[in-house]
Give the backbone structure.
Amino acid sequence: MLPPTFAPKPLALLLSLGLGWYTASAADTTPKDATKTVRLLTIGNSFSRNATHFLSELAKAGGNELIHQPIVVGGASLELHATKALAHERDRKDEMGLYSNGLSLKDMLRAERWEFVTIQQASIKSHDIGTYRPFAAHLNDYVRQHAPHAKLLLHQTWAYRRDDPRFMRPATKAGEPATHEAMYRGLAEAYRTIARELDTGLIPVGDAFYWADTDPQWGYRVDTKFDFEAAHSPALPDQAHSLHIGWRWQRSTEGAMRLSMDGHHANIAGEYLGACVWYETLFGENPVGSAFVPSTITPDYARFLQEAAHRAVMQAQASATSRKASAR
């Protein structure tokens, strides 16, 4: 079931859907009486690094503590992490089974009593459910074996920006998404299907990104008036409310300044949105009204991002609750 188009829902309706352990009501005004400590191991790539960039600051602002061990391999897929785990099981001296810190996945799973462990697909493959199998299941089993007390969560990555080069050229193979919306729809369905198969939770960052990106007021709009041919540094197109890095000037190896596009990775606003989703998912506390806001984000836009994150988490939990009720 794909999330509906983003729209505010009455709080009473959301509460009636049976929100579970990781959702906090916007009406919850119960004073905090203790610091909550969350131990988190993330198995991912640059997207997991993006989405957790501001997580510790949000935790601190909420009076909580985050203990976080990231495993980051640029561009890594589920297959890469599963293959490294298998290589280590076959031969503990095989460097293929070790990460840059010299440790194996097993070593890091056993290093702490993790409360949460997360996995994700590489963004370029996120729309293709065939690339998740059997590697997500292998990692799920491996985590349950070596970190049995941890809750495994799928980190749902996000679609590329609507003007990303991926959508500006012909598809290289069948099934490639031709638009920002098609990529989102594909990845949303893939992550939800795998979450059902593994009976695990979901961190709905991709939902929050899509809803924020397509919001009538706050969504990103492509600047169609910018003249790329005549542009000189530091001039850039209007990228207001972009959640992605987008266009930027970079110096080439020859020393010339050239416009380059990164429609994949999150910028500060995207990192903040992602961290708000993670914060509520892990700590069970609503990020709306958090005292922590990056200095480059205006208060009204920050509020919008907090609310988008909160609604994404509530919708994900409501969908999971409804699915489990139907299965009974």
